[in-house]
Design a protein that fits this description.
This protein is an alpha/beta fold and 383 residues long. Helices cover 38% and strands 14% of the residues.
Length: 383
């Protein structure tokens, strides 16, 4: 049966599982070996080749969720990003990369690509015209991120994909904030989908991993570089990721429901100056998000009025965790200027609108009432 005919919860819970033929266990067994037979076998397996049994089968689940032909699993989201970029760019090539986006990706481009003689242009914005203006004759890759980190801007995926195809340019997208439950960029024309699997795919704040989903042809190109860079993931962590992804759709849908309600709560709160969330009707790309997303995701950012210090507010929280990462089952908050975008210069953060008072809010699966109660008590304590 085609995986496209299966419901998303069925894909999450069944596709990519390894059948335990020996003991008939209900979950995939773990194959921890780093050494496999090389004679008289069809596939020469080796952990650094991304093809151990657990790696191979989990890749099928990720590919099915993203409507891709194939997928690969990496040791981190940045391993997935860096390997993909280096697979499609060489000395003399040019990259067009969206601004704004995750600070780690921006830092990698600025710090590492010049060492390889690879040119790049950060867009002036995230409209299609910004990408078209940045394209040069030697452009080989366009990379976007939508919703973006941390301001939740929305890029027109289909329009960027069509622009790139008209000029024979490969496209990649960071789909971490949306997850494949909310957004399927390949259906909209994007070539390569990248995830920090540490986030929604893992979902329990205990796995560091990355993933790429694309065509078999592009996977082969990425694999040729990946096997040399060595950014694979241990089979125990692969097994944990496969287990966690069984509940991916259930978790993300519950988080989305909370986010929609909390965005409205914050939007109407007298002490909140602005909420960045594509599900709000006053978001400038609300209609675009509605057209290319199934729901609006569980991430948002917001700023208080000047009467509330953001840092003191985070310290006053009792249920919501002031924490570095995002997308776990627990709600978390952080200050992007001090964490995810700390590597950017103050000038760059100012230009992007990432102030020291901006708070990024990742919604978990807790009761909406309990999340709101924690927000209210923290606000009262710092006013």
């Amino acid at each position: 049966m085609s995986t496209r005919k299966l419901g998303i919860n069925t894909i999450c819970s069944h596709v990519g599982e390894i059948k335990d033929e020996q003991f008939k266990g209900a979950v995939s067994p773990i194959y921890m070996s780093t050494s496999y037979q090389f004679e008289d076998v069809e596939v020469k397996r080796y952990p650094r080749y991304f093809n151990t049994p657990n790696q191979e089968f989990l890749s099928k689940k990720i590919a099915a969720l993203e409507h891709a032909e194939s997928a690969m699993i990496f040791g981190s989201g940045m391993a997935a990003v860096s390997t993909t970029f280096l697979a499609f760019l060489k000395a003399g090539d040019h990259l067009v990369i969206q601004n704004p986006l995750y600070g780690g990706t921006s830092n990698f481009v600025r710090e590492e690509l010049p060492k390889y003689g690879i040119e790049f242009t950060f867009t002036d914005g995230y409209k299609v015209s910004d990408f078209e203006k940045a394209i040069q004759p030697n452009t080989k890759l366009i990379h976007i991120e939508t919703p973006s980190n941390p301001l939740l801007t929305i890029t027109d995926i289909r329009a960027v994909a069509e622009l790139a195809k008209s000029k024979q340019i490969v496209t990649s997208i960071d789909n971490t904030f949306a997850s494949p439950v909310v957004q399927k960029p390949i259906d909209l024309g994007i070539d390569i989908v990248i995830h920090s699997a540490t986030k929604y795919l893992g979902g329990h704040s205990d796995i560091l991993a990355g993933a790429v989903a694309t065509s078999q042809e592009h996977i082969h190109t990425i694999w040729n570089v990946g096997k040399n860079l060595g950014g694979s993931l241990s089979d125990f962590m692969v097994w944990m990721l496969e287990r966690s992804m069984k509940t991916l759709a259930l978790r993300v849908k519950a988080q989305n429901r909370n986010a929609k309600k909390l965005a409205k709560f914050l939007h109407n709160h007298p002490d909140v100056k602005h909420v960045y969330y594509p599900g709000l009707k006053d978001h400038p790309e609300h209609e675009l998000a509605k057209s290319q997303m199934k729901g609006y995701g569980a991430m948002m950012s917001f700023e208080f009025n000047k009467n509330i210090d953001a840092s003191k507010f985070l310290k006053a929280l009792q249920l919501i965790k002031p924490s570095m990462s995002l997308a776990g089952v627990e709600s978390t908050m952080l200050l992007p200027a001090l964490t995810s975008h700390a590597l950017l210069s103050q000038e760059e953060r100012d230009r992007l609108g990432i102030s020291h008072s901006l708070i990024r809010f990742s919604l978990g699966i807790e009761s909406k009432k309990d999340i709101i109660n924690d927000l209210e008590q923290a606000i009262k304590r710092v006013k």
